[in-house]
Structures are given as C-alpha cells and as structure tokens.
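=== RUN LOG ===
request id: a7f3
mode: sequence -> structure
chains: 1
length: 383
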Amino acid sequence: MNAPAAQPALQPLPAPARIGMPLAEVDTPALLLDLDAFERNLERLYDSLQGRPLRVRPHAKSHKCPQIALRQIARGAVGVCCQKVSEAEAMVRGGVADVLIANEVVGAPKLARIAALARHARIGVCVDDAGNVEDLQRAAQAAGTVLDVYVEVNVGADRCGVDPGEPAAALARAISRAGALRFAGIHAYHGGAQHLRTPAERSSAIAQAVEKVARTRSLIEADGIPVAVVTGAGTGTYTLEAASGVYNEIQPGSYVFMDADYGRNLDDDGRPVHHFEHSLFILATVMSRVLPARAVVDVGLKAHSVDSGMPTVVGVPGARYARASDEHGAIELDGPGSMRLGEKVRLIPGHCDPTVNLHDWLVCYRDDRVEDIWPISARGAFY
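=== RESULT ===
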C-alpha cells in the first residue's frame, strides 16, 4: 500500500490587521490596544505612588506579552511576575531578565525547567511546603543554578500560602539552609481583596494582611534572616500596600488594560475608583440584525471571558451585551436605529486576563489607525 502523500505544513494564522490599516478595516474578532491610553496608564501607576521608594514588579499574566513587559521595565519596573513556568519561559525568550513565578511549582519536569531557565535570567518562585523546598534544592543543584525562593503567606485569599507566623518562619529557615536556593523574602498577595467594591472593605482586608505580614517578617528577622522583599498587591489595592510601610514591592497587572469588572470598584463618593483608563477592547462585527431590539456580534465565549461578567458595549447608548454562546454575542438595544449589519463595535472585556489568553495578537492603534501588532507570546502558557 502506498503511503499517503505528505501534506504541506500549515502556516500560522495571520494577524487580523496590517500596520497602517484604519480600524474600520480590521478583521474581527480582534483584540485591540489603545496605545495612548496604555501609555498614560504606565505613567499613572508611578504618579499614584507619590514618590514612595517601592519596587514595581507588574504581573504579566494580565498581558502575556513580552513587548508590554519590556515597556514596563523601561518605565522602571524591576521585572515581572508570572503564574506558570511556561509564561516565565516566554518572558525570558522575549528579553525579560528578572521573573518571579508568583506561584508554587510542583513536579520534576517543571522544577527542572525553572532551574534551567535560571541560566538565562534571575528566576524566583514561591513555596508553602518544606518538601517543595527540598525538591527545588535538588533541581537547582542538578542544573548548577541558584533560585530566588519566597515564602508565600496566606493573608486572606485562602488559596496557596502557609499560615503566617511560625509556620512561615520555619520555611524561611529551611530555604536559608539550602545551598542552591536564596531566601528572597515574603510573598503575600490578597487576591480576593482586589474586587471588593467599597474602600472600607478593601482597607479592612489589607489592614489584616499587613498585620500578618509584619508579624511574620519580625519572626523571620529574629532568626537572623534578612527579609529583603515583601511583595504582593494588585491593581485593586496596591495603594494600600504601598502606604503600609511593610510591603516594598507591588505586583499590579490589570492596570495597563483595566476591564469592566475593575470599573465597578468604587471610591468614598460611590464613583468608579480607578484613575486608569480602559485601553483593551475587543473589536466585533454585527453579523445578524433580524430583530429590531437585538444585534448579534461575532464575539462569543471563544473570544472573551465572562467569568467576571459580560463585556461593556462602547459608544452605543442603550446597548447591553446580554448573553454569549460559543461564537455569538447577543446585544440588546433600546432602539431599532442603532447598530447596522456589518457595523463594527468595541467591547470592554469583563475580565482582561483570561480574555487575552484567547487571542494570538494585540492590534495596537493610535488615532484609529493600526500602529503595531504584538504577538501574545505566552498565550496558552498554563503549564
């Protein structure tokens, strides 16, 4: 029997736009980045810190894009955070020289990968278990590298993290005894506090976190182990950690983009709290217009995440993105005259991080014209 003829190799899918193209010609669905708003967000983070001597280590899980990471570093960041080993690998390949995997890493294959990655960049990782410390030590010894290791302390997120106080101090002692590991400090991130809506709720949650971190740091230092870095904080609370006098490194990520969910956080007057702008959008096309009060667009669950709520429709008064299926989004309308068949509309995603992970490209625009196209190099990097 003859073997089947070899098929030509498939080429990567093309970007939905070309540099210089007007936005009206960009194919959809497309992930858009408003460069003017993005650049203002980079500046406003530092403006909001009011000259405090803090290290900024933005979380790259929000954007998964080395081009953005390098711009954050050029603005003053010491490096970036990642959540997974493959994200860190993508960042290092893209030119980032300092990466903290703000997560636990378990299993021989992954431990070998981060130990090898430390030949090319400064790599940090979190631990909340003494056995994991031993495994990291063996992996780093085998690779001939040194890893920065942070004790992750549970300050209220109730996810990963050892209990504050003596359990965390015991882990710090174990790390400091491991020759291929360098005790780098405390990782204390309160993820659940980021989306508490009122200032009082956020302040209370972070005040409790700060007390736990301060107590833990004192115990570790009482053993003669310096705590060089206390790192954590996110877009929703970083000003509180920054003002605490305990944290000296912050990890906001979503500030570069913002999303509809962060837009629901309120200040003392009941207004949206954030001084950051929405810079990330999904461009959609109206693909069906059968009913007067409904438009269907080509952006469904495979183009954006709805775990934090539906996206917001931009520039169409009375329009509400009501429901999503795999490839379709139903928009309810107040009047029949808005949104024609073939019309393009921008959506603000409900949750930027998982939405970005669904796309290959960021179509970067200025003045309604495509200025650049950046690959989302860590898209799908969840292992």
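=== NOTES ===
Residues 49-257 form a domain with the TIM Barrel fold (CATH 3.20.20.10).
The chain is about 25% helix and 20% strand.
=== END ===
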